[in-house]
Amino acid sequence: MVALRLVRTRSLAFAAAAAAAVAAFVACGSTGDEAVPGDATRGATAPPPPPASAPTWYRDVEPIVHAHCSACHRTNATAAFAFDAVTATSLAPLVADRVVARVMPPWPPGPLSAPLAGSRALGDGDIATIAAWADAGAPLGDARDHAPRPPLTASVPSRAPDLHLEVAEANAYAGDANPFVTDEVRCFVLDLPAALASGISVTAARWRAGTSVGVHDMGGFAVDAEGAVALRARERRDGRGGFECSGGLGDVRAVLLGAAEPGNEASSATMLPPGVVAQVPAGGAVVLRVHYGVKHLDEASDRSSVDLWLAEDGVAAAARKLVPLVISAPVEVPCPTGVASATDDPCSRESAFARLAPGDPDARTRADAKLAACGTSLDALFAGLPFTPGGAERFVVRTTCGAAAPASGIIRFVRPHLRTRGASARVEAEQADGTWRVVIDIPRWEWWWAGAYALAEGVPVVAGRQVRVTCTFDNGTANQWSALTGEPGHLAPARAPRLPPTYLVGGAARGAESCAAELAIEPLP
Ligand code: HEC
After folding, report:
1. CB atoms within 10 A of CB 260
2. Pocket of ligand 1 from Cβ distances under 6 Å
3. 79 CA distance to ligand 1 centroid (A)?
4. What is the tens place of the pLDDT at every residue in 289-324?
């Protein structure tokens, strides 16, 4: 059992250890003939053979795993171990458990979401097949049913990319000095080459991690000249390459260019719909956002990059340019015990701003302005919260706010943006008739799997009508970061002992929270 626990570890720094643990687990569970469960040559103690109708690995389960798991579960990819006949059958009960619980494959959007492109979710039939196979003792079946994994290819234009932009040498990422920090999000401003300084119109992007281990996911934005100046000013402020952007890009007008898990070749690229471009105007830049999943990269430092395909001049002029919309709601999350008034009490609002002040002296002004802009107040937000003097393991606080759509058109991309205390997220768009349509609904927020989503058909928006984001946060004692490692929990509570809850506000810093969504709208022609 210990081995399985290890596999569940959040940190990919432990990926090798976990893979070894799985191998060890497999090894101790095997004594030669057991490598073929259900084999008729096994001794009298073997369980009875499965019913002939039971699904088998080679015939029924392996094709599902190839299609839905192997993009991550293979050597040198995101997940800790590769699936083959031996690992899959040895881990069958765990596999079935994770699949039935819909924890694997990771796909946080729920069924209320508008149809999304590239869904990883398993259909009910596939889940039932895997469960039945595990129940039957994970029979391998006939090896002649085995088919090699079909190659997964990223959908990008067939011609070579027009432009390759890489993080500058001076901005290379080298990890945090704190040995416990295994997870951080950094952004890098990539300047356009001089020959393209008048701007570019992007039609497709392929995200490329600079290291084969250590990049959990990445993506990017197109920003204008003003945004590029503002973001460059944030680079290297802490003496390291790029800048901390787990709290997002703030108010910068950033056109979402999509995102990917680079280890996952099925989702390593972004293609815009025909006739649509993401424009980087003169003086603008491409911003790369990289979620590092390990402290210890397999290289001393990382310089990730992106391949871009550009619209030809004539096409670009007529193309519809994606319009960015960033919406955010107030983040005012009290402790389960209530709001303290003493300013040195970590459950007071003042203390939250004081914690952020060294890197973010304007957090308070921003927070007050956000409350006013969203037409709400602390009293309104806190009315009815079940404060308890003794604290609580779970403590859920809701917040919402909208903004007027800047153009009529179709929402193409959305990226909800919460952090480690986020519990759920939803983005909705008000329609012409005043009803609301869900763009994306994430019933159980998992910060590790925060992603950017392309909508399969898009959701209409009308200029001036509202687009709103609604988040819940859980600031209970079980959802706090580990006092031992300084790390948040992932899929399970962080390692005990945990830090006590504090009053949380919005900000870019690692410990701050966020309730925001970035959207890209294709304007009507
Ligand atoms: C997008 C990448 C990705 C895909 C697709 C994926 N996994 Fe995983 N899986 C992971 C990662 C990463 C981990 C390590 C734990 C974590 O970080 O969540 C993991 C862990 C696991 C574990 C160990 C979980 C535990 O709780 O110890 C199992 C079992 C598993 N995956 C099964 C599957 C199966 C079965 C599929 C396909 C039906 C699948 N995974 C698809 C990324 C993926």
Report:
1. 27
2. 4, 7-8, 10, 65, 68-69, 71-73, 78-80, 91, 94-95, 98-99, 104-106, 120, 122, 261, 264, 491
3. 6
4. 998 876 556 566 889 999 999 998 778 888 999 999
